Amino acid sequence: MSIVIEVDGRTLGADEGMTILQALRRAGMDAPTLCYHPNLTPVNVCRACVVEVEGSRALVPSCSRRVEPGMRVRTDTERVRRARKVVLEMLASSVDTSTAPELAAHLAAYHGDPARFGSDVARVLEPLRDDNDLYVRDYAKCILCYKCVEACGEDAQHTFALTVAGRGFAARIDTGADAPLLESRCVFCGNCVAVCPTGALMPLIEHRMRQAGEWDESRQHVAETICPYCGVGCALELHVQGNRIVKVTSPADHDITRGNLCVKGRFGFTYVNPDPGGR
Ligand code: SF4
Ligand code: SF4
Ligand code: FES
Prior knowledge:
With about 280 residues, the chain is α+β, with helices and mostly antiparallel strands. It has helices at about 20-25, 80-95, 100-110, 145-150, 190-195, 205-210, 265, and strands at about 1-5, 10-15, 50-55, 60, 70-75, 135, 165, 170-175, 200-205, 220-225, 235-240, 245-250. It is built from seven helices and twelve strands. The strands form four sheets. A five-stranded mixed β-sheet has the order 2-1-5-3-4, with helices on both faces. It binds iron/sulfur cluster (2 copies) and FE2/S2 (inorganic) cluster.
């Protein structure tokens, strides 16, 4: 059923069951998001997407709040802008954002200044977990958006290798008693890596190339093809730099695979050319 809502003085049509964010995006409007992913169940943890809804005392997350007939929404008030800015500043002041372009873009858009909290703010201090041949985990970059947990669990992979352990600044994504990935339930599909918005989960080859100063997205192009390994025929995007495949992804908007792959499709490409950064 189609319903009508008002957003920033504009009348928008929306479908029953849609979230405010979906209605905004369909109308060419937007809100910043970090923990939201179109293929994952919203978990409402980052609060970057908040909006004002008339009648609601608190700001509401647009990524999960469903539209209601006659709802009046404001996305660009001083209160909304301040709330988003502080959330982004707090995240950026506590984790390493050097490989988080979305967060950096939102921060710039809201004129955020994480340095204003001072140089002695608490930061997430986690060692790099480099314990297998396929991807690294750098939880000093983790904003605890839960996307990897969702992708490994009910929303995609159903492997349940990841959970959240600890509290406050000690909270982090865990494999069960901090087990190395090879001793965990992980099947190395990399579906968690694909949804991580900060580079906390990163293919080993990309990590090695970044360390060596060789990773250069401006020199990369994407070639689309079909996975050669089995009859499922997953869509692949080969990220090619200098005539070498350096990463494989799958389009998130594909009807069947929704960005997901198995270990062979995502990581089994180094036979094509010598692995530039792996072991
Ligand atoms: S690679 Fe796959 S199985 Fe392993 S933690 Fe990530 S989503 Fe789970
Ligand atoms: S590792 Fe990445 S996807 Fe997982 S919670 Fe942290 S930032 Fe989110
Ligand atoms: S994007 Fe809505 S709460 Fe994170």
